[in-house]
Amino acid sequence: MRVRDLPLSAALVSHYESDGIEELYPPQAAAVEAGVAEGGRVVAAIPTASGKTFIAELAMLTADGPALYIVPLRALAREKYETFDRLPGVSVGISTGDFDADEAALGDHDIVVATSEKVDSAIRNGAPWVERLACVVVDEVHLLGAPGRGPTLEVTLATLQRRVPDLQLVALSATVDNPEVIADWLDAALVESTWRPVSLRTGVYADETVEFDDGTDLDVVVPPTGPNDDEATEATVALVEDAVETGGQCLAFVRSRREAEALADRLADEDLSPAPALGDELDELGGTATGRQLSECARTGVGFHHAGLRSAHRVAVENAFRDRRLAVICATPTLAAGVNVPARRVVIRDQKRYTGDSMAWIPVLDVHQMCGRAGRPHLDPFGEAVLVGDADTKAELFDRYVTADAEAVDSQFDDPEALRTHVLSVVASGFADSLDGVADVFSATYYAHQNPSVDLVGLVADVVSELEAMELLDATEGTLSATTLGAQTSRQYVSPTTGARIVSGIRAIETMADEHVTARTALEVVCDTPDMHDTYLGNRERALMYQYARSHAAEFTTAMHDADPFEEWLTAVKTARILHEWTEGSDIEELVERYRIGPGDVESRVERAEWLLGAADALCAALDADVPEFREVRALLSP
């Protein structure tokens, strides 16, 4: 099937053909046959690089009205926005914040790219552009099974289908164990395929040999290791070096940020692909110790990528790799979650990660996502993915990852915080005003589809009782309504638990002496909420943070002896201290050095604090209270 045979304008056909896209891949042709260009609903469960983006574009370009493209990550939103913005004659908008956007302007575009959280927020706040949608594409729909993000995605899809009954839905997924269940839930045709434009062979390294699943093997020369050398790391270095020396690029996945940086440093010693100009460009993006380490590694053709990097550095690494200016990226598994960075070879050194209590195996789907990055279309004759093991683990790695299917996607909607959030949202948005009404809305969720016998009314009743205790819902005489506090909590897009904590903090502030209410007070309130990301609290700094909390106890809304659990509160105090020093002029480099925090972590905490301080100010208005410190600190956080 050819592109010029599709119902596209001459300008669009010319655009695709100029990009070398003339013939459709088999999965793309199957999607067309399933009706994706005729308003049909489709779930495409196909491998990475098999043409999912074209399927999405075809649906959106042939839809009878505006389209929405939902992504799980901001980085992916930016990438897709840039891709769609190249389409001739198509207006594209982007919205990735959880709490800020020009809603009216979004309605002027042909395609809007947004995170699921942003779409959920738009629905809650009655954005008029939502009801004009003709087509919605959901990228990475298998993330329905992700805690936190998954429930928001399924409620968003359930609500969109009710708001726009004739909506075309196209869901794009990695290959998972139960795509037919997702397709059945969405009343969509399933396009399932294992076809790839570049063949992939996956294997396990042990004893200087990689054994692949296609029956072939690869000998790898690993120099003798000394007593202080890590054998898995040296094997990884040899596998990366072999790929680069034969003209390929390589992704090396490890379990943690520190390991990514350490592996990059080790590979930099090999001077694999000198790129001094790239190092200079990275230097210009700003000076932190981590940034300087990255630029020095990049001069040798090696980069690293993790959430602790500043966003500008992450983007630069991704772009340099795509432009083939960077030969290697050492990364944590988050890089595999959707961002387009294909390589000839993927090396997965670590198959376990720390979960807070112990080391646990990485899910099969996550490993398959990493492996799927192997093979650059139009550049590589094949792709290779190698799991680094040893003689003792080789057989287990084959059974667990190489020959195993990815896990089924199961709803996480029954998580208590997710239930509280979405019950409040449904009532506050006016979608339902009774237990039966909320249960009816939830009956359209993926959770209800997977659990048809569940007592949704009973489930909702328990949650309503919790929200009443939080003063966020009122259930007088069987009629549900959001209180003023509940409506504002939902409108500000904070979780009910966060809203209740902020309200408690505001009330505590009203009892404090004026001289004790400071910027630290405002920051302690918002940092001690589940919507503020955790900050690592090391053993060596516990005593220092304890002393800091004691010396500023009069400024905090929580008494030290009442903090429960104390460790979590002390972690919140650390975050508040970092943000307070930021407002007083400390730069990122100083904070990174002082508190063992990544520069990207500082950026994300500042952004979160701005949002939460704005929400706290709005809740003050709902309480007829005035705490100017919330507004003042928020203004100081902005660059």
UniProtKB/TrEMBL annotation:
InterPro entries documented for this protein: DEAD/DEAH_box_helicase_dom (IPR011545), Hel308-like_dom4 (IPR048772), Hel308_SKI2-like (IPR050474), Helicase_ATP-bd (IPR014001), Helicase_C-like (IPR001650), Helicase_Hel308 (IPR022965), P-loop_NTPase (IPR027417), WH_DNA-bd_sf (IPR036390)
Record GO terms (molecular function): 3'-5' DNA helicase activity; ATP binding; ATP hydrolysis activity; DNA binding
Q: Which UniProt keywords apply?
A: ATP-binding, DNA damage, DNA repair, DNA-binding, Helicase, Hydrolase, Isomerase, Nucleotide-binding
Q: Name one Pfam family in it.
A: Helicase_C
PROSITE patterns under this entry?
HELICASE_ATP_BIND_1, HELICASE_CTER
- Assigned EC number: 5.6.2.4
State the reactions this protein catalyses.
Couples ATP hydrolysis with the unwinding of duplex DNA by translocating in the 3'-5' direction; ATP + H2O = ADP + phosphate + H(+)
Q: Which GO terms describe its biological process?
A: DNA repair
Binding positions for ATP per the UniProt entry: Q28
- Which residues are in the Helicase ATP-binding domain? 33-194
| Tree of life domain | Archaea
Q: How does it assemble?
A: Monomer.
Q: Which family does it belong to?
A: Belongs to the helicase family. Hel308 subfamily.
Classification via PANTHER family: ATP-DEPENDENT DNA HELICASE HEL308, DNA POLYMERASE THETA, PUTATIVE (AFU_ORTHOLOGUE AFUA_1G05260)-RELATED
Protein name stated in the entry: ATP-dependent DNA helicase Hel308
> What gene is it encoded by?
hel308
